[in-house]
């Protein structure tokens, strides 16, 4: 008996799926390339016609504008102005993220409060801010609140001698005698110590059942480290004072910085509150009930049982809000806050080539977004539920 | 033996409610007192401002400027006609959907009495209708009244006709012809308007609404293609789509608009020389396409694989599998997310005013405080509150409708 292998008829080339797939891909790719080439060609010829440079040489030319609130001279190259702008963008984003997260989580918990007044107030906050354009809120904060509702410097609000509020900005009690970086170093040291103490107390707890008291011990250690650092560095406190139609002492927050930050925080917090509420509701009800069965107090139930599980769900969407906040900080340029966008805008206004100047800013925003989303992904992986 | 449960008096019920919801624990009582006092004070100030202190004549004097900018008075009729045509259009579509739902027996309002229906509609759209009436009350001429009344008339007429037509199962070519007519109506209104004033000169709230609408409609082809490209197994297509989507999603719209403002004429031949409005709409379209692509991708993932396999088993070509079977379900599943994207684009149109110097609602509201009659009187608060209120009413109503739709579609439940 002989077996004959049936002859496989190879399909002709024009009906071969693999070939067709590649042909299709290449066609689309070439169309995309052609469009890009057309755009680039238009750009290059037009720039040449108008005598506008297309290179990034302008980065080495002198800036010829001043940056308020920075130690910067117009003779420095544009490169340095961009660095200052990048620093300001990161500064307002980082501060904004911290405050927006704290406020957002608080309001989100407030919405689910059993207290009728608190939950209604939180609902009104979320629903009114979420549905209004951020630029309108920011304009209101700047033109309405800071420049109009805040008093003139002569009758500035003085809150306990610690904060002075006027339409020239807000001055806060601050420290002097040292810079921020070493103090932050001590703060981080304290945090690391806290973490180590928490680990040690947990091990003790698992072995002996003694109460952990990690928060109490850790916080004391942090405070101890901070106080030590304070005296080692020789820092002193400076309080703001109104003297001669100006505020002396303390740290001054620019009107535009204050307004932009305030608007970013309250707007982003309204979104984070909504995410927090959804995440808390997504935690199975049995978890909270189990906490009650263990005789935990309301706060303990929230802090140790419900919130950790809710935050696990909330990390990816909250990370998205962080990305939005970073991108939205570019609106500060409309209120003369010297972030990257305003630096690029003024650079272009001073006759530097527009396309390279803005593309540079865009690339930086994209890189910052990618870095942030990577950090969020790492956090997400770290806190993700480990299943058997 | 029966135990008589004494009926609680009304005061007792209220006291129990207050004890449970306001004064459960000492901390709760403190919160209630502090926040309750704060809210009462804020409400008092808000009422005082809205009815006594606020100087709203800055709004009523400039209502036309804020709504439609510097649209010439001779051509106001065109706006009214266009609005009436759009009313007819919206009514027809609403009626067709309602008629179809009644025919298929899936109408939500079928079991409702007339009073129930009215209360349902008031709950859903009362805010919008109330705002419209408020705007009309601020006007000093009869034109806007006539415009709104005629638009409501054509809308109701369209609804009545649409519901009648929708209750029949139409032949294929009739349905297609009908769709063509429906698609032509807003276009006709658009061309009727641009015959008098080119798109580049549309201003005020009209700019915010039309550019948001144009952006969301025009981004569809590109957005769907990008979503398909990102899911494709073909590496070149996939990477082109991913690079585009991630680059656009990582960049701020405000910077993109600034870039478009100064450099769009570099990339296209100078003979085209787009106006500011066109630049804004092009940027909105390219920007929203990247976000829409991610939404559609989510929708494509939500369609069970069996659908595609079933289509394959029926011998449909890959293109038909996608465009006739998978994509329609995917797009339907993500309608709420699309509405969300539309809301955020609607809010983001205010950026165009700041970045490109278009006289939109926000820049208009800032400009009117500089008029000789109002300058230096600190009326920016009144005018910004008006702007915020209009955007709020639009976004809030749409987001509630989208939540309702989400529940009805039952996405995530099926």
Describe, in plain words, how this protein is organized in 3D.
The complex is a heterodimer of chains A (388) and B (414). By secondary structure, chain A is of the alpha+beta class. Chain A is 66% helix and 7% strand. In chain A, a hairpin with a 2-residue loop joins strand 6 and strand 7 (246-248). The longest helix of chain A is centred in the N-terminal third of the chain and has 34 residues, at 17-50. The two termini of chain A are 55 Å apart. The model of chain A has no long low-confidence stretch (mean pLDDT 87). Chain B has 414 residues and is mainly alpha-helical. Helices cover 78% and strands 0% of the residues of chain B. Chain B has helices spanning 10-21, 26-53, 57-61, 63-68, 76-104, 114-138, 143-166, 172-194, 204-231, 235-250, 253-267, 276-302, 305-313, 318-333, 335-356, 361-368, 380-409. In chain B, helix 9 crosses helix 15 (335-356). The mean pLDDT of chain B is 88. At the A-B interface, helix 1, helix 3, helix 4, helix 9 and helix 10 of A face helix 2, helix 10, helix 11, helix 15 and helix 17 of B.
Give descriptors for this structure.
heterodimer, A: 388 residues, alpha+beta, MetI-like fold, 2 domains, globular, B: 414 residues, 3 domains, 17 helices, 78% helix
Portion of residues within helices of chain B: over 70%
- The whole-number mean of residue pLDDT values of chain A reads 87
How confident overall, as mean pLDDT of chain B?
A: 88
CATH architecture of the largest domain in chain B: Orthogonal Bundle
Shape of chain A: globular
Number of helices of chain A: 11
Q: Which value, in Å, is the CA radius of gyration of chain A? A: 28 Å
| Structural class by helix and strand composition of chain A | alpha+beta
Oligomer: heterodimer
CATH H-level superfamily of the largest domain in chain A: MetI-like
Main sheet specs of chain B: none
The CATH topology of the largest domain in chain B? MetI-like fold
CATH class of the largest domain in chain A: Mainly Alpha
Strand order within the widest beta sheet of chain A: 1-2-3-8
Tell me the helix content of chain A: 55-70%
